[in-house]
Amino acid sequence: MGNYANHIATVQQRFDEALTATGFDSVLIYSGQPAVAFLDDNPYPFRVNPMFKYWLPITESPKSFIYYQPGQKPRVYLFRPRDFWHAPVQIPTAEWQDHVELKVVDNLAQVRSDLGDKLTAAAFIGEQYEPVTSWQLGARNPQNLIDHLHFQRSQKTAYELDCLRKANRIAARAHNAARDAFYAGASEIEIQHAYLNAIKFREQEVPYNSIIALNEHSAILHYDVYDRTAPAESRSFLIDAGALYNGYCADITRTYAAQKSGFYQELVEAVDQAEQAIIRAIKPGMSYYDLHVQMHHMIAKILVDFNFFKISPEEVYERGYTNAFFPHGLGHYIGLQVHDVGGFLKSADGQSFERSARHPFLRLLRDIEPGQVFTVEPGLYVVDQLLEAFDGNDDFNWTRIAELRPYGGVRIEDSVHVTEDGVENITRDAFAEEK
Ligand code: GLY
Ligand code: MN
Ligand code: MN
Question: Model pTM?
């Protein structure tokens, strides 16, 4: 990754700025440790502190630290326990090592004694870890420092963009295998296995539980149950699944109709076209909230075009009906985290946007700027819990809604990178390259 040197220089500058603005001398970032199940000694899969992988392409080194004081080379304490139970931690030679002072430690007391008095001036960023609770630190997870860093993270570096492109390539390859498994009549669990197998991933290596939903399950927004047997008839398939590369996330949704024609196939096509149309409309300076509202109007038009309502698209939106069919946000920032941070922040000093009562689940309220990466993921589903409120309402064409119910719904999701005059569609480019 040729851009790593510039990336770590940018991360350093951002920390310099954030530390100065918040009055801290230095920072100590802890990678984290695997959580252990209650009354047990088995750990859950390890999830590294995102602030740790922001600096280094290292995602599998629990109990490690980065110490950074502006003006000095970052110091990395990589933990390699003396332990004959587990495979030894590997530290292959890599570019990042040219940019830091690397110390391999097998005991946390070494970190404490090496840093000595410096600890009392450092802001610690990391989860609670018992051995560290007795350390005298300048502050623990100070919100003002974290807000500052989160605000800056909306601007992706060239290295981060490369990692996101790579994550999308990997996920697109897996999506193609999952699609083929669906058309071959596979069950949900078999599709999940086809997905992972295509990229040789363990289940814990994907950034979130894959949503692999056949038929009615497509209407369950975070469906991750995976039926073991295939349904008698597979009518529809919604897959929302990603991949990680150097700790950066892909988050992609595609929807497929078993039948190559008919109203459900046309509906998938209409949502897909609307998603591409709104992506074409993206320009720096717009607010993401306005884009979300614009999408609601497009969903209202689709609902009327497909005869789900007997009123105009304007009325469908004004009366609040689109929220029942498209209940989630249009998208979110993506990067080191699937739902990447900073979407509610108005400024680096932590002021935030007020959430909209009409659109409470939208995670991104900031203006659109070049360098940002976010998802665009419109959907349209039959969610009975949300429709209950409109029982008996004659504006709705309940017969038509009943026809869609066996298919669940539709969602299409891409990640886009905002440029000076439009966007780069990272996800569509990845599919084009994986053809
Ligand atoms: N896969 C979760 C989301 O799309 O936000
Ligand atoms: Mn998403
Ligand atoms: Mn998704």
Answer: 0.97
Once rounded to an integer, what is the mean pLDDT over residues 384-409? 98
Q: The sheet that has 101-105: what strands, in order across it?
A: 101-105, 75-79, 65-68, 26-30, 122-125, 139-140
Q: Which segments within 93-151 are labelled E, that is strand?
A: 101-105, 122-125, 139-140
Q: Judge contact between 192 and 210, C-beta under 8 A.
A: yes
Looking at every residue in the chain, the average pLDDT score rounds to 97
Own/partner pairs, 86-89, CB within 8 angstroms, 24+ separation: 89/60, 89/61
Report pLDDT for 407: 98
CB distance 237 to 210 below 8 Å: no
Which residue from 209, 339, 340 has its CB within 8 A of the most atoms of ligand 1, so it is best to mutate? Answer: 339
Q: Is the CB of 398 under 6 A from ligand 1?
A: no
Residue nearest to atom 4 of ligand 1 (CA): 251
Angle at 73 between CA 67 and CA 74, to 5 degrees: 25
pLDDT at 70 over 60: yes
Alpha carbon nearest to ligand 1 atom 3, residue:
251
Residue 42: is it exposed, middle or buried by C-beta count within 10 angstroms (0-12/13-18/19+)?
exposed
User: What whole-number distance in Å separates Cα of residue 94 and Cα of residue 111?
Assistant: 22
Mean pLDDT of 359-381: 97
Mutating to test ligand 1, I would choose from 168, 195, 206, 208 the residue with most ligand atoms within 8 A of its C-beta, which is 208
pLDDT band at residue 30, thresholds of 50, 70 and 90? very high
What number does the ligand 1 atom closest to the CA of 411 have?
A: 4
Contact (CB, 8 A) for 300 and 322: yes
pLDDT the model gives residue 386: 98
Quick check: CB of 414 below 6 Å from ligand 1? no
